[in-house]
Amino acid sequence: MTTFRDLHQPGNPFILANAWDAGSAKMLAALGAQAIATSSAAHAFTLGRPDLGHVTRDEALAHAQDLVAAADVPVSGDFENGFGDDPDTCAQTVRLAGEIGLAGISIEDMTLPAATPYDFDLAVERIRAAAAAARALPNDFVLVARADGVMHGAYDIDEALRRLKAYEEVGADCLYVPMTASFDDLARVCAATKLPVNGLAAGPYAKVSRAEFAKIGVARISQGSALARATHRVIFDAAKAMFDQGDFTPLTHSISGDVVDDLLKA
Fold it and tell me: What are the angstrom distances between the C-alpha of 132 and each of 129, 164, 172?
């Protein structure tokens, strides 16, 4: 049996599909997703809230549990900064994630909602505590350590690499630098570690093919909130046409309800 960890093969990336509710999780699994992940931003959008620190841990766990129940594939949680600043909170978040059946979670190194990086030593201790908790779980659990300062303009790729090396040393299973400044920087991340690296197919990197991600050694490809925002684009365009022009033709591009029903029954 292929486990969630087994899917992480550098140079042969699987697509980790980011869902935002039970229906999207079931559809994505039926369409071929080998694993599902939550998206903190996409989940927040469903609650009518912005991203970055506006969803509680209890809400994130309940949402993730819904996806675990909906999809017959491994589910990983996008759990922001672990829902607390201190290492013990990160460890408790891992334990709670394991209890609801998640195959893993990711933890960022940013305070939220301020989006400023934790001090290097504290950032490392947070991952050390989370990794220790993950290893103590009865089931295998993939802990992803994220260096998010590059995405937020808080530090550069060299600092990200310094942090990733430390995260690897204290027990992280997978590394992730969202939205590197260049594809070459993402290649540097892959070359700097023996751990699996997550690539993000969003923004300019949505134009990068799976084969190109594979060539530099990426092990998995997530989309963050990009798939949810593509759905929101359809809503936005159709609503603008309806309310501004009385034009309903964008609705002719919808998918058949029968097709959706069949996917949800799969």
Answer: 5, 17, 9
